[in-house]
Amino acid sequence: MIVSEENVVQQIKLKNEEAIAFLLRNYGGLLNSIIRKYLGSQQDIEECFADVITSIWYHIHSFDPNKNEFKQWIAAIAKYKAIDSVRKSAKEMQLVKSIEIKKRNATHSHSIIENFSAEDLLLELSDVERIIFEKYYIEGVPSSEIATQFNLKESWVHNKLSRGRKRLKSILKKSEVF
What we know:
Layout: H1 8-13, H2 18-38, H3 42-58, H4 70-114, H5 118-122, H6 127-139, H7 143-150, H8 154-174
């Protein structure tokens, strides 16, 4: 069947692929100019244009001729698809910048951490805390065994580990590592 201005909506609903050719021929310029208002790169424009055509094809059932004309409806789709594309690009750029900042901070922190050795940091702890840290974190001795060696409760060992971590964290914060 020949697609015309009067039956284009019906032909799209019937999934007649000739209707796409009609859309491109009769409305391609309009859609392209709307999208170009929002997007700069040719690749983004082409991707958005394809999204608009796809959206028209799959959402034709939501077109209501009582609310507006077909031309207005597809123009609105083009406008909002282009705006969505701009938003998506902005989010992606923000994410890339965030990752770059995190990488820079990680590199900076890594260089500061290199100035500290684990032994230097452990020297900042009391003798008892240092022994407990070494046994628990370096040697892998369970907290229950450490408590038995000191003839104290296991909660005491966890308390010493917690306080030691806090002290080391404050030392690293002062050195701008955290």
